[in-house]
Amino acid sequence: MTEQGRQYLVFGATGGQGGAVVRTLAERGHPVRGFARRGAEPADSGVSLVAGDLADPAAVREAFAGVTHAAVTLPLVYDTPTVADYARNIADAARQAGVQQLVYNTNTCIPNDTTPYPAYETRRITAEILVDSGVPTVVLCPPVYLENLFNPGVGGALANQNVLAYPLPADRRVAWLSHDDLAAAMVAALDRPDLVGRSVQFGGGDVVTGPELAAIFSTALGRQINYLPLEVDAFQEGLAFALGAEAATGVAGIYRWVGQDAGRDLFDLDPATLPKVLNVTPTPIAEWVVARPWQQFA
């Protein structure tokens, strides 16, 4: 497929994951349009932005005008009927626009079995709606992001107390993934018709436990860092100040499941999948750590 005549659309363009996709497409010289809530500002001033609500079918159709390829990351909304409406609006507009390929980022791995947590189930429903829509769709299922560690809560404890606190049991193995590597994977999948209809679970190249992650931080930062498994209730309470109670409850459900035996291996992914299936070389955790200005949290 040639590049001529392509128009890319990125949902969640002002968020962490969607913003990285926008940057990656723009840096490669692709025409890209972003979709975000009203009042949001594009991360790249050179990227056009359509402001609207995913619950508004007309706004979603407007965003898809002339679009050939779309990358979808949903906002942190976990009400099942609302998210199903989002998915149907995207699917209907993409089908009407004749979109050639759509890539959906579930924002977390989805367990094989049904769970009581909307953070998984709303993303499962969305994947089913998009794949069944008739629009050629690839579903990408990443684990958890390194950028989740770079915030005042985690970064403050790291900078001031030499503690890496996160709501995962110490023995959970996690294939931590950066936003940039996620973006590279999504852009690669947009040009992979052979993956249509498939769900690809992938993570970064380093699959580590909590103490092993802290050891990487220790070496990278030149001081002893200790891992502290944070109670999910405490994590949820802190997150509510930044995201609101409903979003915080939804996100916390991800960690409640992984903290149980049933979810023990959810983030323990094959590090070979990203380079073998999507031809993306993952960023080593140590390289990512060194590149962050942790001192700003001191």
What's the topology here?
Blueprint: E1 8-11, H1 16-27, E2 32-36, E3 48-51, H2 57-63, E4 69-73, H3 80-97, E5 101-105, H4 118-131, E6 137-141, H5 152-161, E7 163-166, E8 174-175, H6 179-189, E9 199-201, E10 207-208, H7 210-221, E11 226-229, H8 232-243, H9 245-258, H10 273-278, H11 285-290
Parallel strand pairs: 1-2, 1-4, 2-3, 4-5, 5-6, 6-9, 7-11
Antiparallel strand pairs: 8-10
The whole-number mean of residue pLDDT values reads 95
Strand content: 5-15%
Number of strands: 11
End-to-end Cα distance = 49 Å
Proper CATH architecture of the largest domain: 3-Layer(aba) Sandwich
CATH domain fold name of the largest domain: Rossmann fold
Low-confidence regions: none
Q: Which geometry do the CA atoms define?
A: globular
**Name given to the CATH homologous superfamily of the largest domain:** NAD(P)-binding Rossmann-like Domain
**Largest sheet, strands/sense/barrel:** 7 strands, parallel
Assign a percent range to the helix content.
40-55%
Number of domains: 2
Count of DSSP-assigned helices = 11
The SS-based structural class is alpha/beta
Q: C-alpha Rg, in Å? A: 19 Å
CATH class of the largest domain: Alpha Beta
- Compressed to H and E, one letter per element, the order equals EHEEHEHEHEHEEHEEHEHHHH
Give the spatial strand order of the biggest sheet.
Answer: 3-2-1-4-5-6-9
